[in-house]
């Protein structure tokens, strides 16, 4: 029997099927340091254990996106090893902080299947859940992926397309137990701008640029234990459409989030990712810039210390973000656009 | 008196001499995270502290090869700084797991000396031992190295060539105290294939490819505190035969081991390295692939939970491992071959 | 109100002003491992927790220069984001060791201001202090930076140029509480040469070379949370004088210190930086070499176990340090010279 795992093909998935993902992963201060060195993050609660404790957490939590990438990475060998394309994310909620010493495990349930009209591939919809060692859920999200069939002649499963919420509603956002925004020190956090200071529709140019290197994105993607070959195998890449290794899209989200510190330093926690699109691929040598737009402002029930901002953060490559490059009226993206992310953050109030 | 250490030359070694290597090294979760980011390792016991504890260890151990590289690296300044070539390894046994918080020290005894017929260099055979802070041995191995003489006119020492076992016998393998393979969860470990499922002579193509970058191998080799100049000094390399910095051979072993997860996910611990050959040099930009062959299957005395597999893992560069590139009948290696490693792993039984 | 922080310009600084720098930073074993992997450090107390405890410290301390870079990095967004040039350092004293688990914060006081004759920029002198979570000072230094004006028409502040000591006097050096050099094991430390063995004026070629990569210096500089754009943004660099990203000068100091192990292995702690000059910029691809000169030898009051050496360490690029490349009689630096650092170390005595 073949010992090598070649991943699941479209016809291997069953509606309702639960896949427990190998291998659980204990996270440590080493992961946090590497993530910082790879992205340049400076958000206060992750940077300072003292500040995290002063605001009700038990220690400096791991960066929310590092948790996302670890859980996502776990799902790759069973869900998307044979993916033609990652089509989208939805309904991603961050449920509890993860601390050094925790062990993350992940599982995915198949919630939808739809064969393409050509019949050689199909869309697989999964809901992925990340848990802590005590079973506590820390993160869930839905994603859908176009997966090749092993054999186009194999019969198609019944089509089932799940309903996907366009965003995580304000009342479904989770504020981590204990976390509060009282007595927030704007000198130490890096910005005087709190929730009240952001206006609907406001646009922010995050100004700084960051050039990506092969060693950096490879180290990041391995840290996430994401095994997608396109990020690591130049021989494969040389035969492909771009001739180059692709940077893992999630790492671009991380870089955009780190760049957004300059303008959103008090966006101390990601509560949800509503949706996101990798508009174009990114390669080593590209320089990233980012800008953000405030889509919605929500108060949180019973909380005067924290509010929520729904943001859209866009990343562009090899040009600055000034002028806020975006889609045009016909919906055609600016040629420099690589990421269009819709997400919700928590921010201290005055 | 010259303050710079220029390393030992062939005529500096004495048969029976014991060299205590500077500097002891405390290992941490930071080392484990970096090793993971550099190699992409996913073996269950190293990835999950929960799983390690469930199988009788006190925590997630450091990767066996990370321990090997740290002990090996310690020996470089005194043993192989003036080496022309690393000729071989033998009789390498992994004696006890190493955990974050342990401090490793290393020492080597000269067990053989043989001047070459040209008289300008000689082979030094050493047995190297790595210990924990409490004196407990964690690793030993023999290696032999061709070392330059400071002055070809210096007299040759008496020749003494030690007997080197062709492999570590099954009865000499050490199962770490407490470690057991009972109730092994093949869903979490990443493969359904256990010891019983591997057949003598079976070949496994590990499928995935990994391209190496200068920053990656340099960071790895510095993490191992290995000071061999050929890995770091491009000015020196530019004057040399290849014009490029050489990747530390041990790092290639690590990459091959990490790639072997796909096909050998339940090879949870390396018990011995029987021998190994770096068939050709590897450079940044090369893409590695690996395949393995099952050489022997051994039960272990008194254990029904774990068995041993003696494996041969071969790494090739810039071509896939399909077709199992190997030596030809005349013993000439395939031009893509870079590593031929003979080692023994422990694997849970049914 | 603009949310992006564009940093302070010359006319924003006030004499006597105190700037508390965001964001405090908890340091961990992950930072120590990364620093080791990036620099190759091998000094005994940082490498071995056992040795650190045997010599009176509570654990393996973070490398002194890592602490320097973290405190320096904190000051960049408010002090030198709009710097034309970093002109110098003085009076830098290392006051207490920093251990994994500590949280560093930093603040700077403006101690001098001097507008240039052209009127479009000015020199800002600051004294920066790094503290531990309990308020204990761990490091202070002065630096002066040439900073652009936002508007050359803005009025100049009154000129105040502080007096800067040419060096930290022997009586002002701090030996960390508990640290002692008794029973120093020269086999484990990597060198038989102790304080008594170094002669005034002695020169040491540190021999080894180290080639820098983009991914390495970027990861290091992000680890230090230093946000200066010139190190990360190739688009900006392409428009600049060199066309390339600049390596953070402090990282060159770290590389020179790590190289100096070969010749100064027993220089176990940096007590002071008296001054330093980045003679020329360094880029990825450059290979660094270093040499040192003994400027002064000091006994320390009441201590027979430790002495101090005032050293000058010079780094050159793309040529070896043999022949001790230096300034010529007219003060013109050797074209290969990139760093000229004057600092003071503690070393065990016989």
From TrEMBL, chains A, B, C:
One Pfam family named in its UniProt record: MC_hydratase
Gene3D superfamilies in the cross-refs: Hotdog Thioesterase
Protein origin, superkingdom: Bacteria
InterPro entries: HotDog_dom_sf, MC_hydratase, MCH/BMMD, Thiol_ester_hydratase_Rv0216
Name used for this protein in its record: MaoC family dehydratase
């Amino acid at each position: 029997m073949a010992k090598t795992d070649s991943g699941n093909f479209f016809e291997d998935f069953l509606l309702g099927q639960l896949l427990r993902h190998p291998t659980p992963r204990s996270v440590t201060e080493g992961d946090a340091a590497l993530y910082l060195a790879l992205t340049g993050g400076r958000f206060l609660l992750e940077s300072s254990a003292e500040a995290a404790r002063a605001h009700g957490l038990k220690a400096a939590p791991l960066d929310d996106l590092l948790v996302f990438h670890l859980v996502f990475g776990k799902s790759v060998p069973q869900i998307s090893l044979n993916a033609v394309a990652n089509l989208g994310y939805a309904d991603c909620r961050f449920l509890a902080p993860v601390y050094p010493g925790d062990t993350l495990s992940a599982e995915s349930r198949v919630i939808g299947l739809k064969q393409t009209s050509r019949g050689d591939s199909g869309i697989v919809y999964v809901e992925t859940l990340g848990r802590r060692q005590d079973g506590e859920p820390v993160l869930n999200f839905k994603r859908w992926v176009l997966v090749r069939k092993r054999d186009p002649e194999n019969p198609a499963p019944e089509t089932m397309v799940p309903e996907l919420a366009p965003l995580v509603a304000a009342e479904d956002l989770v504020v981590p137990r204990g976390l509060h925004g009282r007595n927030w020190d704007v000198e130490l956090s890096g910005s005087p701008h709190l929730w009240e200071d952001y206006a609907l529709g406001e646009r922010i140019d995050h100004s700084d640029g960051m050039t990506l290197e092969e060693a950096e994105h490879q180290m990041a993607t391995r840290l996430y234990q994401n095994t997608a070959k396109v990020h690591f195998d130049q021989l494969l890449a040389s035969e492909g459409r771009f001739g180059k290794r692709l940077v893992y899209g999630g790492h671009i989200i991380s870089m955009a989030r780190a760049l957004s510190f300059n303008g959103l330093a008090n966006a101390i926690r990601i509560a949800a990712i509503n949706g996101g699109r990798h508009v174009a691929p990114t390669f080593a040598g590209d320089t990233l810039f980012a800008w953000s737009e405030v889509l919605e402002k929500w108060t949180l029930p019973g909380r005067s210390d924290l509010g929520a901002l729904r943001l859209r953060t866009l990343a562009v490559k090899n040009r600055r973000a000034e002028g806020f490059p975006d889609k045009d009226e016909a919906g055609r993206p600016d040629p420099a656009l690589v990421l269009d992310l819709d997400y919700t953050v928590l921010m201290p109030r005055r």
